[in-house]
Amino acid sequence: MRVLVVEDEKPLAEGLKKGLDAEGFATDLAHDGTDGLWMARENPYDALVLDIMLPGVNGYQVCSTLRGEGNWTPILMLTAKNGELDEAEALDTGADDYLTKPFSYVVLVARLRALIRRGAGERPSVLDAGDLSFDPAARVARRGGSEIALTSREMSLLEFLMHRKGEVVSKREILDHVWDYDFDGDPNIVEVYVRHLRNKLDRPFGRAAIETLRGAGYRLAADGG
Amino acid sequence: MRVLVVEDEKPLAEGLKKGLDAEGFATDLAHDGTDGLWMARENPYDALVLDIMLPGVNGYQVCSTLRGEGNWTPILMLTAKNGELDEAEALDTGADDYLTKPFSYVVLVARLRALIRRGAGERPSVLDAGDLSFDPAARVARRGGSEIALTSREMSLLEFLMHRKGEVVSKREILDHVWDYDFDGDPNIVEVYVRHLRNKLDRPFGRAAIETLRGAGYRLAADGG
DNA sequence: TCAGCTCCTGAAGGTGCGCTGAACTGCAGC
DNA sequence: GCTGCAGTTCAGCGCACCTTCAGGAGCTGA
Fold it and tell me: Whose C1' is closest to the CA of B184: which nucleotide?
């Protein structure tokens, strides 16, 4: 789990890094808001620990800037005093949790883990056609309840067909979208892969999702065949 | 609410018990570290009040031992003098809060209630996938009943995979999250560690939790394989 | 009915990805 | 020092996947 700690008090920052590393986190440090912002943009962190009082850009600003850019990495804010205002403001600007200094190290780790567990889970959509479904992100195809193992090329083809379910797609289009533009091999490859998909998606279920339109191309039945 | 007070000064201990009982707590007493540890293990307390200066096993040791065993009962430490070292050390060993002697009885009760109220939410949770489980805080992995010894790198990898169980994670993602971002060594390291995990988690049990998706990455079976 | 075409099918290379065992490095404990 | 362990690097190997190919089946129009 990769974590960025943005904290200007160096001893505290170093202590946190040491502790978090020992817990198995991969911890990076930034000592001011500008650096913090930059690093948070450039790297895929699982969580941010963000002090409010920072030289340059302060914690609130870092937080709201990131949120404004569509970055939803979980953020744990460190508020200096036990002021209600601080905490409320932290949550307002888009932080996910806050901790009042001085804080217990155990509590920090626990809250951090909780944040990461909840995580930022924006799920890409699942494509479907009748009882046939395909989740491109998870790389899982299903017919009814059962999961179907597909190779990368088979998935690319299925994804393309599902995006255009109900439409006729020519072999030329398939070649252009599923294979590289500069593919100049045997176009028969499309037929071969259609066959592979049929063997996996249709035959075991006695269905016919992929229809051949002689001279025109193929069509994936919108209802899954 | 059941509370254990571990305190060797008998008058203070008795006074606390009387007061806490009056507040509606069910209070047990232990007068040294050994007894305290034993009682904390055997009974499901909602909180512990733990003096640092104890005959035999001291408060720090009691605290870190319990944490090491995966016991996350909230602990309120009593530090003798107002030394920063004491406080920091208390928190380091896993205490949730501390109080400097002499303390106000009202404050003690208030903090104790606060701890108990927050209590559950702060305990690190255990990740699981079927009969496979991993407690990131205790750093213990188990398959079924048996505990499995893992190195810290193996744990980081397992933790990352378990957080995203059922999803496909690419080697690049694994490198970015489990290794430091400036790691520019051989990406083959991921394969090597996947192999280590398989040797420890799968092979002895004839299972297959970690699936290879050629060209895409790896996936930890949500049901443990 | 036949030719010409498209598409299907099974099998057979190549190739590169991932697996594997071993060696090397650095660090901690004795 | 030596020993053992964790982390990392490396090179060879096998196989899964991709692609090609040739023959066959089936459709279409004359």
Answer: D8
